[in-house]
Amino acid sequence: MFKQLVMAVATLAATMGLAMAQVDVNKADQAALDSVKGIGPATSKAIIDERAKGPYKDWADFETRVKGIGPKSAIKLSEAGLQINGQGKQGAAAPANVKKDAKLAEKK
């Protein structure tokens, strides 16, 4: 019984972390963008200022429009949980929380 309770709490914690870790660049406010590892106040402001001109279509559009974001940094941001229209950057590893959820599911 105790083991099941611990697994339930661990699954809940992992799920909550996953929900918090995913940040869509077209919907997030500055605080949410700042919560992504690799994005600071200046970058989040640049993202929001550029987004005011129109939503980001995809990762290529994002990289072109936001100064200082190139393919390598876009992959790191995607791995940290940043998404564009619900999609991570192709070629990026899944965020750490997604990997943890997959391992927990395998153990069940």
Question: Which features does this protein show?
Answer:
108 residues, mainly alpha, two-stranded parallel sheet, 2 strands
Shape: globular
Q: Which radius of gyration do the C-alpha atoms yield?
A: 16 Å
Number of strands: 2
- Measured by DSSP, the beta-strand proportion falls in under 5%
**Beginning-to-end CA distance, first to last residue:** 14 Å
- Mean pLDDT over all positions: 81
Derived structural class: mainly alpha
Order of helices and strands: HEHHHHEH
Describe the protein in words.
This protein is mainly α. It is 59% helix and 4% strand. It contains six helices and two strands. The relative contact order is 0.17.
Short description:
This protein is mainly alpha-helical and 108 residues long. It has helices at residues 2-21, 30-34, 41-51, 59-65, 71-79, 96-107, and strands at residues 23-24, 82-83.
